[in-house]
Amino acid sequence: MSEAEVRELLQPCTNLVGGIIHACRRLMKEFGYISADQKRILSDIFNLSVAEVSGIISFYHDFKTTPQPPNTLRICTAEACQANRSRDLIKAVESHLGSTIPCQTVDGMTAVSFVYCLGLCPNGPAVEINGQILSNASTEQVLSHL
Amino acid sequence: MTTAYVSNDSFAHALGRSAVQHALTANGIDCVDVGSYGLAWLEPLLEIDSQDGRVAFGPVTSELVPHLAALLNTGGNFEEHPSYLGNIHEHSFLKSQQRLVFRNVGFATLTDVPTYGTLKTVLNREPQELINELEAAGLRGRGGAGFPAHIKWRTVADTPADQRYIVCNADEGDSGTFSDRMIMEGDPDALIEGMAIAGYACGASNGYIYLRSEYPFALHELKRSISRAYEHKLLGNNIFDSGFSFDLQVFVGAGAYICGEETSLLESLEGKRGQIRAKPPLPAVAGLFNKPTLVHNVITLASVPSLFDLGGEHYGSLGIAPSCGTIPFQIAGNVKYGGLIELEFGHTVRELVEDYGGGTRSGRPFRCVQIGGPLGAYLSEAELDTPLTYEAMQTIGAGIGHGGLVVFDDTVDLREQAEYAFEFCEIESCGKCTPCRIGSVRGKELVQKLPQTSNNEADIQLIHELCDVMENASLCQMGGMTPIPVRSALERFPEDFR
User: Fold this and answer.
1) Cβ atoms of B294 and B152 closer than 8 Å
2) Would the CB atoms of B14 and A133 count as touching at under 8 Å?
């Protein structure tokens, strides 16, 4: 996508309250991350320094600044899921992956990370796979996606 | 064609609702989306019309649908179906509740056009009169702080300004809580109507719902309801020809627990890092873009229509004053029967954990319950008879928070939980003040090394001192309340720290 096209993509956000957050979300949706060039464009559109833009992006867990794998798997790490043995699930996944979460699968196809609460607290452990939510997640179920 | 009223809540989606829906359609049964009654272990739950009213089935799987279809086609006895539940309103979990906020959730069809009858009625009254009635009702903020709502409303209304805002805090991030999500997915119009009423009372014509990004289903329902409300002129210019106008938008957060703190939320809404602001000025005086802003949690605002329908005095007579009215509790974690329980204030923790929750799901002995999210206290068996009011909970060093109760069995290690409390604060701290930003890191390290030290009394003393600093010197409740889970674990379960 050319710079002009990126600017066109972000143009509608400039009229919105909190526009830069909307703009970052658009970039995440379109590209999966926000590049250094795009930070510069954001700084220009929203009349902020690149440092300010970087500060905003790095504050929020949802925004990434490096290319992301096509798939995402997020395991809830909150207390209600801990009460339903999510710590065991996390240990099993980490031992399967051979590294600690957050990380990627060896083939680079899936980003594995934590999420703090999906609001499914009576039916833990909760997992989100490519946006699909899953309650009572078993280790086997989760490993089958990795 | 037969109609099935199928729960469209995230609970149901996470337990295979889409497969059930496909099976229903394949078997010639029409699906209608409804909210969830909040009996989480029975999801996906659906209801079918019968001559005796609606009959419920749950949990339903796609494999069980053909049997249901066969019973419908042959006029067979529903009770033969393995997931037959009968009249859900007679279910002991639901029957004993006092549902005001959640009065429509479960049976009301999500695609029905609402009337906003309460809004229509209150638009004929003076704003000041509404705030007086809110005061009589004794409604307090349901987000955690329990601050009297009428004081906020009056401050916003009385502060001179050319623009005022109503902001709904829908950044429900606490573990063990899902009532905000459920009302937004099951009856978003209660929230929208409540915000419009607040707008009229406070003289605000603009509203924002700050929704966390982890709730995509809630976003879908909110958007659907807001655009429908605009279509039917229940939002926008000159609502009900009263001269009152109110515009409402949803703003989706970007993953930051701290944005549930009202000033962080306002910063984020303004398109900045979600770092907290020092108070004063209070948001009610200078909030969004420095204008008077009413910031309330979802349940507080969604309580408003039912409160005015019931009348302030009647509402205020519920519960144990000054903890008035009803609150949707949420029982979660290691329980047999988890879900949403709306009750008036004053029931005991034990009633929720044992009578509703039915004991642990694992079958192992109960060890503790954490009340009020990640910044809430861990309570032991000895404290289960405490009544759930703001005042009674305070006397045992705990709080109701957002009404979430998370039950743990005897496999829990409270040292691990205390470490997690610090770690959570470390990850989610906005970084503005030192006690929270650094204290959380040092606290985690201290708790981590406890098992390696033989005589750890000195370290435990140090943790207490660190907690004192965080409690007294943090700018907001994130750092200020992290000591609560830590200290409650240390004091009630010292054996785990040796």
Assistant:
1) yes
2) yes
Check B257 against A59: CB less than 8 A apart. Answer: no
Same domain, B404 and B443: no
B18 in helix, strand or coil?
A: helix
Among A59, A82, A97, identify where a domain stops: A59
d(CA B390, CA B48): 40
Query: Based on the domain organization, do B204 and B129 belong to the same domain?
Result: yes
3-state class (DSSP) for residue B207? strand
Task: Inspect the interface and report whether the beta carbons of A17 and B249 lie closer than 8 Å.
Answer: yes
The shares of helix, strand and coil residues in chain B, as percent rounded to the nearest 5, are: 45, 20, 35
Q: What is the pLDDT of residues B185-217, one digit of tens each?
A: 999 999 999 999 999 999 999 999 999 999 999
Chain A contact for B143 (CB, 8 A cutoff): no
Question: Tens digit of pLDDT for each residue in A70-88?
Answer: 999 999 999 999 999 999 9
Task: State how far residue A38 is from chain B, nearest Cα, in angstroms.
Answer: 17
How far from B454 is each of B89, B414, B444, B450, B457, CA to CA, in Å?
A: 56, 18, 18, 8, 9
- Co-location of B71 and B82 in the same domain: yes
Task: Say whether both B459 and B354 belong to one domain.
Answer: no
Q: Please state, in angstroms and rounded to a whole number, the distance separating the CA atoms of residues B187 and B90.
A: 21
The dihedral region occupied by B497, where left means phi > 0, alpha psi between -120 and 50, and beta the remainder, is: alpha
